[in-house]
Design a protein that fits this description.
The chain is mostly helical. Helices cover 79% and strands 0% of the residues. The chain has one domain. The N and C termini lie far apart (65 Å).
């Protein structure tokens, strides 16, 4: 019979890896449906109190979700494949940050084009659209 502690370790590692994958930018769909909404919600909360901080907090929120995703994937994979948890290396962090920078450029472009905006502006656009209809 299998060792219950080993099964728990592999199950918790699989859960961490899955959540990390959902937060990481490694699949084409997850950023649009997972990271961007989380980053936008973070930016809306921050910009509610400090409106000029919208773009910076959007970028920060996005980077934090990506970084957390990569760390969770690495930790989950380590739990599945090994008996001990290896440390998260600087090399891994540099790679993870480089990927996040590429997506950040796209996010900044969308803010500059007005596709995504602070919560106040978004609510105003929705209100204007509803009143036009």
């Amino acid at each position: 019979m299998a060792n219950p502690a080993l099964i728990r370790r592999k199950a918790s590692g699989g859960t961490l890896a899955f959540i990390g994958y959902m937060l990481s930018p490694l699949s084409w769909w997850n950023d649009l449906f997972v990271n961007w909404p989380l980053a936008l919600a973070f930016a809306w909360i921050i910009s509610w109190f400090c409106r000029p901080a919208f773009t910076a907090s959007l970028i920060l929120g996005y980077w934090l979700t990506n970084l957390l995703g990569f760390v969770l994937m690495q930790k989950g994979g380590a739990k599945i494949l090994s008996a001990a948890d290896p440390p998260y290396s600087w090399k891994s962090m540099r790679r993870d940050l480089a990927i996040s920078v590429l997506y950040t450029v796209l996010m900044v472009a969308l803010v500059k084009m007005g596709v995504i905006a602070p919560i106040h502006d978004t609510l105003q656009r929705i209100q204007n659209y509803v009143h036009k209809s």
